[in-house]
Write a structure and sequence with these properties.
The protein has helices at residues 40-49, 62-72, 84-96, 112-119, 162-170, 225-236, 245-256, 258-281, 303-312, 336-353, and strands at 27-28, 79-82, 103-106, 124-127, 146-150, 177-180, 201-206, 219-223, 284-286, 293-298, 315-316, 318-319, 328-332. By secondary structure, the protein is of the alpha/beta class. Helix 1 (40-49) packs antiparallel against helix 7 (245-256), helix 2 (62-72) runs parallel beside helix 7 (245-256) and helix 8 packs parallel to helix 10 (336-353).
């Protein structure tokens, strides 16, 4: 940090984004992007909106909210669109955490949670996952702070049942519980239907994964009107026009093109199952994933070694230099051809090191 920064930034370790190398063409399985392009209808609407970029967008994103509300069976007033779901999460840290209200989350989870806590000067309570990398819901009863749970979790891919999340909500009546559903469309249970049953629930979702729009930066929060209004206070105090016209237009197309969305999700789930079986046949331990990635390790080589060997072969996966998970790599599910090449490369690496 320079000598000009405020003390608030001292000691902050920024989030480390997945590599986006430009030196050559890679099979890119490190940032959980979709292997499929955005919906053709989403692309068309984005192109058509380009001519209106001289004008600010509607800060309420009314058309997008109305269409999303119909899809999600909620009211438009129960939705807030954001610049990626990361912005929705940050808004929640700002609105519902403070010096006397810590952020509560697992030790192995989405890496932005501790960053948002540090950036906003929020104390944190970090709860270890169990030995099998699952969440013990009882650990979050009467948590004494705002709870953040990625469901499915990242990078493990393991999901809680809706009934387990309800237990957390019931046992934290005085605190907000944020359920980050970035990967929910790949086999987990969404909790959107619970937002009016529990007044302390916020759901965040993203268009980056299942709707193939990582580059558009579009996310949303879903909650009862009172909580959404709290988040809107933060939004309108920071960036009223937080979603571009083109991203909002693409979002309308992506939501409308339901068949394209379902077909792609089904394809990723099918490929995930086949790839998991392939890894297991090579002696890997693979955690049970309901995300668009798998988290796996092999006792014959470290996660760092597998990551580096795959990179030399033109395949990028994600390695986390964290003690509990240093033997694992996270591998995004691409198309069938890319996953077959990845299995072939892994098999070759295992033969070389023996």
């Amino acid at each position: 940090m320079s000598k000009f920064t405020g003390k608030r930034l001292n000691g902050i370790t920024p989030y480390v984004a997945g590599e986006q190398p430009q030196d050559k063409q890679y099979i890119k399985l490190n940032t959980n992007e979709s292997p499929f392009p955005p919906s053709p209808f989403a692309q068309r609407l984005a192109r058509e909106s380009a001519g209106d970029m001289l004008l600010y967008p509607d800060p309420e994103y009314s058309t997008l909210c109305n269409i999303a509300a119909e899809k999600l069976s909620v009211k438009a007033s129960e939705i807030l669109f954001t610049n990626g779901s990361d912005e929705a999460l940050n808004f929640a840290f700002i609105a519902f955490c403070g010096y006397d209200t810590p952020a509560v989350f697992p030790d192995i989870t989405y890496g932005f949670y501790p960053v948002f806590a540090a950036l906003n000067g929020v104390p944190k309570k970090v709860i270890p996952l169990k030995d099998d990398f699952t969440i013990d819901v009882k650990d979050y009863f009467n948590a004494g702070g705002t709870v953040f749970i990625a469901n499915p979790n990242a990078p493990t891919g393991i999901a809680l049942k809706k009934s387990d999340i309800e237990k957390i909500l019931i046992n934290n009546p005085e605190n907000v519980v944020v359920i980050d559903e970035a990967y929910v469309d790949f086999g987990a249970e969404s909790c959107v239907s619970l937002i009016n049953k529990y007044d302390n629930l916020i759901i965040t979702q993203t268009f980056s994964k299942s709707r193939s729009m990582a580059g558009a930066r579009l996310g949303l929060a879903i909650a009862n009107e009172s909580l959404i209004n709290d988040l809107k206070t933060v939004k309108f105090s920071t960036n009223p026009y937080n979603v571009s016209r083109m991203s909002a237009a693409a979002g309308i197309g992506a939501i409308t093109d339901e068949e394209y969305f379902k077909t792609n999700c089904a394809a990723i789930i099918k490929t995930r199952a086949a790839f998991t079986d392939g890894l297991k046949s090579l002696g890997f331990t693979v955690l049970p994933s309901t995300a668009n990635f798998v988290f796996a390790k092999n006792g014959n080589l470290s996660g760092e070694k597998l990551y580096s060997e795959l990179k030399t072969r033109g395949i990028l996966v994600r390695y986390f230099n964290i003690p509990r998970i240093k033997d694992f790599v996270r591998i995004t599910i691409g198309d069938n051809k890319d996953m077959e090449k990845t299995l072939g490369a892994i098999s070759e690496i295992l033969k070389v090191i023996k």
